[in-house]
Every structure is written in structure tokens, then in C-alpha cells.
Write a structure and sequence with these properties.
Helix content is 39%, strand content 16%. The protein is α+β, with helices and mostly antiparallel strands and 404 residues long. It has two domains: 8-99 and 223-251 and 258-403, Beta-lactamase (3-Layer(aba) Sandwich); 108-202, no CATH class.
Length: 404
Amino acid sequence: MPVRPVHLLPLVLAVGSTSAQAASAPKDADRTTVEQQSSRSCENPTMDQQIEALMDHHGIPGVSVALVDHGNICLSHYGVASRESSTDAAVNDDTLFEIGSVSKTFTAALGAWVQQGGAFSLSDSAASIEPDFEGRPVGEVSMLELATYTAGGFPLQFPAGVDDANIHDYFLNWQPDFAAGTKRLYSNPSIGLFGLLAAQSEGVSFAELMQDSVLPTLGLDATWLAVPDDQASRYAQGYNGDDQPVRVNPGPLDAQAYGIKTTARDMARFVQANIDAHQGNEGNQDDQRMAQALLATHQGYAAVGEMQQGLGWESYALPTTLDTLQNGTTAEMALEPQPVTMLEPSGEPQPQRWYHKTGSTGGFGAYAAFMPARQQGIVILANKRYPNGERVEAAWRILETLEQ
């Protein structure tokens, strides 16, 4: 893997080394407690260095990291799940984090799962599933365009005043800013509607389909849209930029766009499932259907420069560079429309790519990445948001050590 000259992060390491040593007692105690609870600790000095530097520089209370390497998963945990707790409970295998827009990869898996069952096709129009949309601009948009943010200009967030009671009217009255398939504009309403319609085509609610069918098929038993009362003690407290405790606010189509709460261990299982999908379809009928669904989420359906937009996942051909990956996670990519080239995917697996997704809520930051050809991946979950580029760099540096 090419190595880019280091810029910001080593400076952070150098500046932060003294403060990291000064705070080493509680951090080391937290890690010792956690590793005794973990199935396997990563014991990766580069990981420790990268994560502790990020925590020191951004004041992150706690981080959980999972590494996937040729079917093996290790977990390392840092800091605390909440500063509000009198016990300062250490982050551990069971700590639940909000993962923000990484949730879109689960929504994509749900949609592809339903599609594999024949309930709809990606080329189907929104009106073919929701008859009320007939004759409206939203009705002409395809499910693929909704899932790839190429429908014609849905905004990043719903406008103020849109809620569950009037969301249907919002879509009925929506007017595109440009022709579908000409620009990509990253959008919660766009992929949110994709998830809503995918579940509707199956005749069940999104939450029911996700929690009762998709997540169990993936083998994820600590992943939730709504954290149950008996799991509440495991739910980490998030912190905003002012270090105030915050949790994700409910909103229209929040479950589809940014609603998942999960552990690093379950996220690693999800990453492993995505990697395993490239190794062949074994298992029962549901397992095979899910493997095909995950492969469908990896296809490149639209291209913005070197980035190919899949369903949920974004990907880059290997070998790639750190600069390239970081440039794909900038605010400009998220906030401004980008000229796009719609692709005709072959349908064949694409293992020689770096797949990734960032996600944030007001008090959490998440990142997941994997390379099927190398059978390696990483998950980094934190209970405070911090710049996307630094998440990518930390993941890159840590994954490099697996090749040494």
C-alpha cells in the first residue's frame, strides 16, 4: 500500500505525547479492564498511538476499534463510555455507539435484500411502489437514483418544519434542481426514501424488516434502531464540540439515514460479512440471499472522479492513496452537487477496491472500511465527532501494520 508523507497527525502525536503520558494511568487502567472482557485484544502499538493521539487532540472520551484480518476479529477499547457516570465505565465489547450515516450501509443492505427477493428492481420508479407519487417529479425518480443521491437534488437534510406528519407532502411537492443522473448530491431524504419504499414494497415497516429480518440474518445481536431498555446501560453518552452530553435527535426517516446504534464487535461482523460475500455463497438460502445483496451494494453505480458510489458504500480501485480517500470525505463532497457519470455495473464481484463509509451524529463519529481482496477491514467508533480525514488516516495507518 503506498505511503503518503505524514502531515497533521504526527504533529498531533508529538504535541500530544506529553499529555498522553500524563493521563496514562486512567487510560491504561481502562484498557486493562476492557481487554480482560474482550475475546481478543488487538495489541497493535500503531493503533494505540493513532487512537490516543486523536483522543488527546479532540478530547474524545472513548473509542472502540475492531480489526478484521483473514476471518479473525480483534477489539481494542480506549477511554470511557460516559463522563456522566460516577464510575467512568470503560468502553468495552458491549458499548453501543451511534454510527450516524454508516447506517446508510445497513439501509442499502436491506434494500438489496428486498430486491434480491424480487419485490422491486433498482430501475423501478418511486411511483411504481407508492402510487400517490404518480405524476409528480418524485414519482419519476428510480430506486437506484434515490440510493445513489442522483435523483435531482434532494438536500442533505429535510427542510425545517418537515416531520413525520407531513413528510409525504414534502415528497409530493418536491421539485428537482437538475436532471436525474447528472449530479450527485449527498442526501438523507434521498436514501431515506429508498429505504422507506424498499420496505413498503415488501409490505412491512422499515424498522420491522431491519430488526426482525436483516440484522438477524447478518448475525448481529447488538445492533438497534431503538435501544431497548435492558440495553440502555450499554449505550455510550455522546459529546458535542462544546463537550456537552448529547444523543441523536429523532427526525423524519432517521432510522434509514442515521439511526443505527451498535458495537464495534457487531460492526466488525458486518464488515466480515461484506468481505465473506466475495468468497462464495455458502450457508442456507437466507445466507446466500444476503451475500448476493451485499455484493449488490458494492457495485459501482455512479462515479464522481475516482470514487464509485455503491449502495451505501463508496469505493476506490486498489491501489489507492490516502490523499484520494481523504479527498472523498470532504465537506465539499457532502454539501455540494458533484457532476456524476452513471455506470453500467457488470454484476461481477469487485474485490480489488477500498470500500468505506463515514458517519456522524451530534455526539458521535464512526468509520468503517474494508478491502475484500486483502480480506481486511477496520471499524473505529467514538463518542465524539471529529474530522473525517483524520478517521481515514488513522484507519490507513493501522491497516498498514497488517501488511508488515
